[in-house]
Design a protein that fits this description.
Elements (H helix, E strand, L loop, with lengths): L3 E14 L3 E3 L4 E10 L12 E6 L2 H7 L7 E9 L9 E9 L2 E2 L16 H28 L14 H23 L42 H9 L7 H8 L10 H17 L6
Antiparallel strand pairs: 1-3, 1-5, 2-3, 3-4, 5-6, 6-7
Helix pairs in contact: 3-6, 4-6, 5-6
């Protein structure tokens, strides 16, 4: 996976603000913007040329949609190479400044020393989302080619026989791992069985037992708050970071977590899936 680079306080000039487009499975939108980067040095082949930028942040989208062609503004740009594709690099506007103040401001609060996500954390979260979407799209493309009524030779796809065979190997590996993760019992969802310490007859007929539902924490060790939940997530094997949990819960911020037990169950399922899926470099 290519590294991301951030170029702060670049001056852009709007050429065109295009229509919003949907991405992912949660009804989220991205905004394509054509703009010139006026901060590029003299002699740079891209200076003065219109380039495509993508905006994921809703506050920035709202701000840009009110601006006219020719509007100039300062912004932070994230750039990510795509060495395995003829397209790219990907350029994303991740912050805009008006009078030296950021347009999108993460709001703190909530107690417990909570702070908003930093720019770097936002970039990591978006990278996780993009990687997931790109992987799903790539797998779907190979699946469509395989299920086409008329067999498509590798040459017609623009790759040689060896390259096509390599892609097919990755495709079936991803399918197998996904099936294994789906069929496997998520790790850590049930308490480990232990010896019965009660004396015979200590539980008369009709007495209730302290059974813990699947995916729940024992009553003696309940999840106390979001911070406790995140600490437990980091102790899973493999661990689940805060941003990964937010993606799995389809939320943008940990403050949106309302059901701690349901979130814990999702974290365990994410950890089990993460342990079984390969790192596919699509």
């Amino acid at each position: 996976m290519a590294d991301n680079r951030v170029y702060p306080k670049q001056q852009l000039e709007i050429v065109q603000v295009q229509d919003e487009k949907s991405y992912g499975n949660a009804g989220k939108k991205l905004l394509p913007v054509m703009a010139k980067n006026l901060s590029l040095l003299e002699g740079d082949p891209l200076r003065g040329k219109s380039m495509k930028f993508t905006v994921f942040n809703q506050d920035l989208q709202t701000w840009l949609c009110t601006k006219e062609i020719g509007t100039r503004f300062l912004c932070d740009i994230e750039e990510r190479d795509r060495p395995d594709s003829e397209y790219g690099p990907d350029r994303n506007i991740v912050q805009i400044y008006v009078n030296n103040q950021p347009v999108s401001q993460k709001k703190g609060g909530g107690g417990g020393g909570y702070r908003g996500r930093t720019l770097e954390e936002d970039l990591i979260l978006e990278a996780v989302k993009r990687r997931s979407n790109e992987g799903q799209t790539a797998i779907a493309q190979v699946g469509n080619a395989l299920t086409c009524p008329t067999p498509i030779p590798g040459e017609d796809l623009g790759i040689d026989e060896e390259g096509w065979a390599r892609i097919l190997g990755k495709y079936w590996q991803a399918v197998e791992k996904s099936l294994d993760a789906f069929l496997a019992q998520p790790k850590g969802t049930e308490p480990a069985p232990g010896p019965d310490q009660r004396a015979q007859g200590a539980n008369p007929e009709g007495a209730k037992t302290d059974q813990v539902p699947k995916g729940k924490t024992p009553a003696s060790d309940p999840i106390k708050h979001v911070g406790d939940l995140l600490t437990r997530c980091l102790k899973l094997k493999p661990p689940i970071a805060r941003d990964e949990l937010c993606v799995g819960l389809n939320i943008n911020d940990q403050k949106e977590i309302t059901d701690l037990e349901a979130a814990w169950k999702t974290a365990q399922q994410l950890s089990a899936t993460k342990a079984n899926l390969p790192d596919i470099p699509f």
